[in-house]
């Protein structure tokens, strides 16, 4: 069994699967039967039913990319502050990718971009107990060596396409586990201000004039000025400052 030497607990248990419907679903099954070690990673070379935000699918060419889930127990984090976990995970992924390539950004809430191209998607499933988080499944899909993508996908790319070289998947996975663990430990230590500050540093198109679209189709111009404590996007436009959740606004450009 593969295990990583540069982490305390994330990736110390690594379950490598050849083919699976969804690593998040597999993690849920493990949690329903027992309590896996915190930091357990479930990785699949071929994930057939990967999911993204708000029900979207995540397409990945078998053997070319990283599709994996991490089991965490952030019981120290109040449910009302769960967006801090999103921020910490997005930062860990961004920190890791930044060791390989420049110009890494977080496109709210937690997609990872290099320049204007999407290389990574994240789906976090929290299981709540009262006012706290009982457990979290962190699903991550990172395009690493894939070079061909479906034409209907919006601006997809991969580390390999951008760097014009092939990456060692296990080496990239180890770096991700290392950096995610670092940010998770910052979160556990209560360093909320640092996480929120660094998240804004990485935030895609912060303070830049952009186009957005309401669900009913109306397009408007505005600029991102921040993120609320509950994870809503703050956009300043002609009517003032407005808060949006992921179902209330679409980022156009």
Structure in a nutshell:
This protein has 253 residues and is α+β, with helices and mostly antiparallel strands.
Q: Number of helical segments?
A: 5
Distance between the termini: 44 Å
- Helix and strand pattern: EHEEHEEEEHHHEEEEE
Q: Quickly name the level 1 CATH class of the largest domain.
A: Alpha Beta
Number of domains: 2
Chain oligomer state: single chain
Instruction: Calculate the mean pLDDT score and round it.
Output: 93
Low-confidence parts lasting 5 or more residues at pLDDT below 50? none
Tell me the strand percentage band: 25-35%
* Radius of gyration using CA atoms only: 18 Å
Strand order of the largest sheet: 1-2-3-7-6-5-4
General description of the model:
A 7-stranded mixed sheet has the order 1-2-3-7-6-5-4, sandwiched between helices. The longest helix has 20 residues. It is built from 5 helices and 12 strands. The mean pLDDT is 93. With 253 residues, the protein is α+β, with helices and mostly antiparallel strands. Strand 1, helix 1 and strand 2 form a beta-alpha-beta unit. It has 2 domains: 189 residues, Bira Bifunctional Protein, Domain 2 (BirA Bifunctional Protein, domain 2), CATH 3.30.930.10; 43 residues, SH3 type barrels (Roll). Helices cover 25% and strands 31% of the residues. The protein is globular, with a radius of gyration of 18 Å.
């Amino acid at each position: 069994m593969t295990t990583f030497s540069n982490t305390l607990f994330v990736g110390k248990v690594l379950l490598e699967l050849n083919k699976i419907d969804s690593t998040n679903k597999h993690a849920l099954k493990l949690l329903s039967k027992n309590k896996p070690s915190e930091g357990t990673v479930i990785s699949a070379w071929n994930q057939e039913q990967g999911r993204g935000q708000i029900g979207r699918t995540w397409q990945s060419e078998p053997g070319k990319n990283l599709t994996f889930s991490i089991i965490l127990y952030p019981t120290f984090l109040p449910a009302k502050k769960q967006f801090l976990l999103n921020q910490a995970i997005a930062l860990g992924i961004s920190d890791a990718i930044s060791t390989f390539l420049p110009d890494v950004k977080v496109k709210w809430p937690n997609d990872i971009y290099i320049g204007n191209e999407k290389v990574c998607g994240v789906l976090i499933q929290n299981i709540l107990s009262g006012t706290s988080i009982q457990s979290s499944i962190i699903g991550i899909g990172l395009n690493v060596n894939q070079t061909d993508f479906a034409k209907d996908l919006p601006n997809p790319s991969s580390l390999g396409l951008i760097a014009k070289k092939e990456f060692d998947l296990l080496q990239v996975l180890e770096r991700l586990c290392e950096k995610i663990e670092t940010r998770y430990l910052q979160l556990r230590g209560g360093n909320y201000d640092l996480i929120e500050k660094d998240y804004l540093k990485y935030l895609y198109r912060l303070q830049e004039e952009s186009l957005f679209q309401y669900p009913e189709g109306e397009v408007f111009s505005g600029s991102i000025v921040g993120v609320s404590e509950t994870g809503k996007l703050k956009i300043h436009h002609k009517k003032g400052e407005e808060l949006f959740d992921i179902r209330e606004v679409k980022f156009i450009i």
